[in-house]
Write a structure and sequence with these properties.
Layout lengths: L1 E6 L4 H17 L1 E9 L13 H29 L7 E7 L2 H11 L4 E6 L13 H8 L3 E6 L9 E5 L7 H14 L2 E8 L10 H7 L5 E7 L3 H11 L4 E6 L4 H4 L6 H7 L4 E5 L1
Parallel strand pairs: 1-2, 1-4, 2-3, 4-5, 6-7, 6-9, 7-8, 9-10
Antiparallel strand pairs: 5-10
Length: 276
């Protein structure tokens, strides 16, 4: 049985993303491990040191009580969506969220990390600042991030943003496997800025790779990369967007311009990040 790690802070954003975790688990015959990571308060004053144990005890009890109250809520979400048969286990742990996700992903052989993301909440913030994006960059497991305003839709159309590089082929194969569970169509989209056209066009090679499969290749030239992708998502009724993560901070460097800013404010479909 496959494993899905679901980090949660029990917020509305997280509960909304849980539906996607359940649907994915049901489709690929996976179990879900929910993960709630908490940190103890920092002591800022010397004279509090003698009360430190009491402070920590209260903090731990508070986290446990909150956890105990919220776990049944997740179970009720499963029942409400007729997914009560999905196997779910729960982990409450003291530590650093990113570190614990990386540790569990490796030790428990996690297949997917599914989590919600709030995106940007102010002009100075971007999608890059969210925990979900840090997980995408740092955790080697495939990550599915669910934007806060994303309402669940059956995954029938997947958009793979690519430059038709050779190193993207393995990611495409993994997307193809996932698409078969959902019986979904795949669109592969390359967006080239007018001054960065690909002289060694590998699109023809990809045409042979995807031959006789439910996959279409698209190449669009234009300088508004974010706008083109967003328009494509809307025009083709895309239910999930997938990207290959080449290196840390990949999302900040994609196409050598900021793809993140507009997507942070406008994208409302799940984002699948696949590592090398």
């Amino acid at each position: 049985m496959k494993k899905i790690l679901f980090p949660t802070d029990f917020s509305d954003v997280s509960k909304n993303a849980f539906i996607y975790a359940l649907k994915l688990a049901d489709s690929i015959n996976a179990e879900i491990i929910t993960l709630h990571v908490y940190q103890l308060p920092q002591a800022n004053y010397i004279n509090i040191s003698k009360y430190l144990h009491e402070v920590y005890d209260v903090a731990e009890l508070s986290n446990f009580e909150n956890y105990k109250d919220e776990v049944p809520v997740l179970r009720s979400i499963a029942e409400k969506n007729n997914l009560h048969h999905v196997k779910i286990s729960h982990v409450l742990i003291l530590g650093n969220l990113i570190h614990e996700i990386k540790k569990m992903s490796k030790e428990d052989t996690i297949d997917f990390v599914v989590m919600g993301t709030k995106g940007a909440t102010g002009l100075k913030e971007t999608f890059m600042g969210t925990v979900a994006t840090k997980v995408m960059n740092d955790v080697k497991t495939t990550v599915l991030a669910i934007p806060e305003h994303c309402q669940y839709q059956a995954i029938k159309k997947i958009l793979f943003v690519t430059q038709f590089r050779t190193e993207d082929i393995e990611s495409l194969k993994r997307i193809v496997v996932l698409s078969k569970f959902f019986q979904a169509h795949i669109d592969c989209l390359r967006v080239q800025t007018s001054n960065h056209e690909n002289k060694n066009d590998t699109m023809e090679d990809w045409s042979q790779i995807v031959k006789n499969q439910n996959i279409l290749l698209h190449s669009i030239i234009g300088n508004d990369v974010e706008g083109i992708i967003l328009n494509f998502i809307e025009l083709h009724k895309i239910n999930m967007i997938a990207m290959h993560v080449y290196h840390q901070n990949f999302f900040e460097k994609l196409f050598k311009i900021s793809l993140s800013k507009k997507l942070a404010f406008h994208i409302n479909v799940p984002i699948l990040a696949i590592h090398e």
